[in-house]
């Protein structure tokens, strides 16, 4: 094949591309990689392009990209009751803890002694947190508690700007960057709610691994069994909350990165409606898929954290102009409908996970919820469309660094980011045009008249770490794709989802299921998950 081929046009037509041509294309676009990796990357990009071609075959010429925020508002769920940004209940102190200072000291002790220990953390602000805790105790004694988060120690993923500190983004690339001169909106809102930021936490490199893999700091370890993965990319959040280091942590979810570690570590994790949380001061990966979300030991605490951080932000104009609302935690409400698909065990669903899914349905039915059997959406296709969006946007974000400092990226992350160099503008535009179409189809076919849609969060228990590392990147990438099969497409739809514990597998590790809501329907899925938690007693450790 002649070197003069213009890959931007002709590469879309054939898989048989000469490696020399690919190398020249890479050189022309300012990045490099081993030949074997480039061939794999190109092949993966071609697969994504075929998925877009299949999905867009029926698009009309008049169907143009519209702001997805408008689409989400069009299909928004009505609030369960009078809109209330935060509830008024007092914080729940752990047994044996008298106040915030003691709570922080207890957290520091657990970080030192409870596996996976310090691995879950990047930086620990012990002195700052203790000073803040003393002040919080004083405020509590004076009746000045700001919210249900007041005086609670919290961990945050290492990707949020904090004044005078440098977010590492899970790697070494930013070590020479200046420290932040202002706070991320999410950090500001946590502090306004009275939360005590204990430190930053382990994360997958640039938030690019569903297992919690990090080539620099080591893979995330599951607090139930450290030979197994924590899930990612909010690995430190899952590890720390699952181990009891802190009751609450803040992560991000682009393709499942809150829900996956929540499920695998036996805690609760919420992905809010797209554009519900500000991304100001947050590491960008794929802004049209990114969202900030809490992981906590209980549904109620997840809800309180969500109410504290979500809502309009004058600095991030992409945020939806609607304040969050919460359910009435103390009044059961089973007057809601849960849709569900018929599932079978297989390579993407273990027998144990299927049993937990069925048991969850049985519990909801016993509690009085209405169940309706509906259609499973094409999660594989939705995941592929999400991957096109992720590839294009993340490559654009990292383009300069991939060109100038490629050695600062782990091989696996570099391979995944480089896919975006081979994604065409036409495919990216079609993915944007298709998003409202697939959201409408999901709501009509999978959630007709329903308040939520129940799915597994993962195929099963957390995999062993040894099964997620190795030299054959193609095999590993297939395994990673399988792990996020049940979550990735949900981000493309832009709807909210909450993962919560629903049992244990054959190895005694946690299993999680997720309730998917309609746009802005967080209050409904929070209510359902909370009532399930009260009924079953999960999480248990």
Automatic annotation (TrEMBL):
Pfam family, one: Amidase
Entry-linked InterPro entries: Amidase, Amidase_dom
Residue span, Amidase domain: 104-526
Membrane-spanning segments: none
PANTHER family in UniProt: AMIDASE AMID-RELATED, TRANSAMIDASE
Protein name per Swiss-Prot or TrEMBL: Amidase
Annotated source species: Advenella alkanexedens
Lineage of the organism: Bacteria, Pseudomonadati, Pseudomonadota, Betaproteobacteria, Burkholderiales
């Amino acid at each position: 094949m002649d070197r003069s081929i213009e890959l931007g046009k002709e590469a879309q037509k054939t898989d048989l591309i000469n490696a020399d041509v690919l190398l020249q294309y890479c050189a022309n676009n300012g990045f490099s990689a081993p030949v074997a990796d480039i061939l794999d990357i190109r092949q993966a990009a071609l697969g994504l392009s075929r998925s877009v071609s299949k999905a867009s075959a029926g698009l009309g010429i008049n169907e143009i990209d519209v702001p997805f925020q408008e689409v989400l508002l069009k299909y928004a769920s009505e609030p369960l009751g009078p809109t209330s940004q935060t509830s008024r209940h007092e914080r729940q102190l752990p047994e044996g803890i008298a106040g915030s200072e003691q709570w922080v000291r207890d957290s520091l002790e657990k970080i030192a002694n409870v596996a996976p220990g310090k691995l879950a953390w990047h930086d620990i602000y012990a002195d700052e947190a203790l000073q803040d805790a003393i002040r919080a105790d004083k405020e509590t004694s004076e009746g000045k508690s700001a919210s249900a988060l007041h005086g609670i120690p919290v961990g945050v993923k290492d990707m949020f700007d904090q004044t005078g500190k440098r977010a590492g983004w899970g790697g070494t690339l930013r070590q020479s960057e200046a420290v932040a001169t202002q706070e991320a909106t999410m950090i500001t809102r946590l502090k306004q709610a009275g939360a005590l930021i204990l430190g930053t936490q382990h994360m997958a490199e640039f938030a690019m691994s569903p297992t919690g893999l990090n080539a620099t700091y080591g893979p995330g370890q599951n607090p139930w069994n450290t030979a197994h993965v924590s899930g990612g990319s909010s690995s430190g959040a899952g590890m720390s909350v699952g181990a009891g280091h802190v009751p609450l942590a803040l992560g991000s979810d682009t393709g499942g990165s809150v829900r996956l570690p929540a499920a695998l570590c036996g805690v609760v994790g919420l992905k809010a409606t797209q554009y519900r949380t500000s991304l100001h001061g947050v590491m960008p990966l794929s802004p049209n898929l990114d969202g900030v979300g809490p992981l906590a030991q209980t549904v109620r605490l997840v809800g309180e954290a969500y109410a504290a951080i979500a809502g309009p932000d004058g600095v991030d104009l992409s945020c939806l102009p609607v304040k969050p609302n919460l359910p009435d935690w103390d009044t059961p409400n089973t007057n809601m409908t849960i849709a569900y698909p018929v599932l079978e065990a297989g390579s993407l669903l273990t027998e144990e996970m299927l049993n937990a899914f069925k048991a969850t349905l049985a519990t909801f039915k016993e509690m009085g919820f209405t169940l309706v059997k509906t259609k499973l959406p094409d999660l594989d296709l939705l995941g592929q469309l999400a991957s096109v969006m992720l590839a294009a946007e993340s490559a654009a974000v990292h383009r300069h660094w991939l060109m100038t400092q490629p050695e600062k990226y782990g091989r696996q992350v570099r391979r995944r980011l480089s896919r975006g160099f081979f994604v065409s503008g036409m495919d990216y535009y079609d993915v944007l045009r298709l998003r409202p179409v697939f959201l409408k189809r999901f709501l009509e076919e999978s959630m007709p008249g329903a308040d939520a849609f129940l799915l597994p969060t993962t195929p099963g228990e957390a995999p062993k770490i040894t099964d997620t590392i190795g030299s054959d990147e193609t095999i590993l990438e297939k395994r990673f794709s399988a792990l996020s099969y049940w979550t990735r497409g949900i981000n493309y739809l832009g709807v909210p989802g909450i993962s919560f514990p629903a049992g244990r597998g054959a190895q005694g590790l946690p299993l999680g299921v997720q309730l998917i809501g309609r746009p802005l329907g967080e209050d409904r899925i929070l209510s359902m998950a909370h009532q399930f938690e009260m009924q079953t007693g999960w999480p248990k450790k």
